[in-house]
Write a structure and sequence with these properties.
With 225 residues, the protein is mainly alpha-helical. It has a domain at 55-208. 28% of the residues lie in helices and 6% in strands. The protein is built from 8 helices and 4 strands. It has a two-stranded antiparallel ribbon. A two-stranded antiparallel sheet has the order 2-3. The radius of gyration is 17 Å and the shape is globular.
Length: 225
């Protein structure tokens, strides 16, 4: 289990949407050392099978949130926050978009106004409506720094394992985002299937309160697993 703490170029716009439709590759069963985002697509934060970020299920239970423009989520639009190297935004975090209503009675999610992606509630009605949605993991880390409550919106079992793998503990926003997810989802507990996940969460607890730079991390000798 390996992850890099060197600074990375984030090819991810601030927009959380993944609008491209891409065919899902066939899943393989590689060894841990050979795992990539393309051949190990559907593991959850716990290292177990990734559950659906179930937008259709939500809409079936909440008819007023039926969304004809965005009926499905995920980069492949298969209602899984599956990993793919072609997804430059890494839309791997499943969140439950909160419900709000405009003054005119239209249902929308105030997630889009809180993040500044929609300029008004009326504009937000043109964005994905309430319910499960896969968002950019890099944007999640940046926005969570300003709105810590976003951690409570995450569906842990439907959020991808590569969020843990790819967050860089040398970057403050990513380190603190990982620490928050580890806490909210209980990733150091027994239900986590991979020891490397627990170890990285433990390391995040140690590093995040202090100086989050590459030198500090590397000095500990535990920056690669």
């Amino acid at each position: 289990l390996k992850w890099q703490v060197a600074a990375m170029v984030r090819i991810c716009p601030c927009v959380f949407l993944a609008l491209a439709i891409w065919p899902a590759p066939v899943l393989g069963k590689p060894s841990t050392e050979d795992e990539t985002e393309d051949n190990t697509m559907r593991l959850s934060l716990y290292g177990s099978a990734l559950r659906k970020c179930d937008r259709p299920g939500y809409m079936a239970e909440h008819p007023d949130a039926v969304d004809s423009r965005f009926p499905h989520t995920g980069y492949a639009r298969d209602d899984h926050c599956g990993s793919m190297s072609s997804d430059a935004g890494s839309h791997y975090v499943c969140v439950d978009l909160p419900r709000a209503v405009t003054a005119g009675g239209k249902v929308y999610s105030d997630f889009w106004t809180k993040t500044g992606q929609a300029g008004s509630p009326e504009q937000a009605t043109t964005w994905p409506k309430p319910g499960p949605w896969c968002i950019c993991m890099w944007a999640f880390a940046r926005m969570r720094a300003r709105r810590p409550e976003f951690s409570g919106m995450v569906d842990c079992h439907a959020t991808n394992y590569w969020v843990v793998q790819n967050y860089d503990l040398a970057r403050s926003d990513e380190c603190h985002a990982l620490k928050a997810l580890c806490s909210a989802c209980g990733l150091e507990g027994d239900q986590t299937k991979r020891e490397g996940i627990r170890k990285k969460c433990s390391l995040a607890r140690q590093i995040c309160p202090g100086q989050d730079d590459a030198e500090t991390c590397q000095a500990g000798g535990n920056c690669q697993m």
